[in-house]
Write a structure and sequence with these properties.
There is one protein chain. The protein has 70 residues and is mainly α. The protein has one domain. The protein is rod-shaped, with a radius of gyration of 22 Å.
């Protein structure tokens, strides 16, 4: 799903949760943007953390292999 479509979906959910209140389209859109961006940031941060841990683990394994070879 594209970022735009995800924001539109969340904005529509906010519209429904507000009881279909009219005149809040911009407010719902901006809140949806914030929520979606926060969600993507959290996922990216988590992925980066996992990648860093894997890199450290792999780096440590290479050092162990090098020490055994010496």
């Amino acid at each position: 799903m594209s970022l735009h479509n995800e924001i539109a979906k969340v904005a529509h959910e906010l519209y429904e949760k507000s009881g279909h209140a009219h005149g809040r389209e911009l407010e719902n859109w901006l809140k949806a943007e914030r929520l979606v961006n926060e969600r993507h940031h959290a996922v990216n941060a988590s992925s980066l953390s996992v990648a860093k841990k894997a890199a450290r683990k792999n780096s440590g394994l290479k050092n162990v292999k090098s020490a055994r070879s010496a």
